[in-house]
From TrEMBL:
The protein, known as: Pol-like protein
Entry-linked InterPro entries: Endo/exonu/phosph_ase_sf
């Protein structure tokens, strides 16, 4: 089964064995990783391609299972966000970073979402604990829309 996983790994190299275990058990197609602290020349686990994401080198990456076509999307936003369209039923995956204690406006998020081909999946806020608008945290706001 193809799954998409997001994990705040707190160091790619220091948690590499756990990452391999996750990949084997979950049969993940994509794993979005945060706080990777990637070193120069870091190799991905066997069977995956490493896709560095975002403006902070080593902060975010995605592991994409080999054989899955990926097209990165060039976003024009003040938010720290990365997005790519993948060939799993043509799903766009976006992973924004919401800085700690920094409120994010609905307008900024709406502008980001308008740039994403549909259907799309937004993965977390980046572990920073940025504040989403209250109406976006209600249960009915969490449904997938295409």
């Amino acid at each position: 089964m193809d799954t998409v996983v997001q994990w705040n790994i707190h160091g790619f190299r220091s948690n590499f064995e756990e990452l391999k275990l996750l990949l084997n058990r979950s049969q993940s197609a994509i794993v979005a990783l945060q706080e990777c602290r990637l070193g120069e020349g870091q190799l991905p686990p066997r069977g995956f391609t490493l896709l560095p994401w975002g403006v902070s080198p080593g902060a975010k990456t995605a592991l994409i299972r080999n054989g899955i076509h990926v097209s990165e999307i060039d976003l024009k936003t003040g938010l720290h966000a990365a997005a790519a369209t993948i060939s799993l039923e043509k799903l766009t995956v976006c992973s924004p970073y919401l800085p700690p204690n920094s409120p994010v406006s609905k307008l900024s998020l709406a502008e980001l979402f308008e740039q994403l081909p549909k259907p799309f999946l937004v993965l977390g806020g980046g572990g920073g604990g940025g504040a989403l608008p209250p109406e976006w945290t209600r249960e009915d706001a969490r449904r997938v829309h295409s």
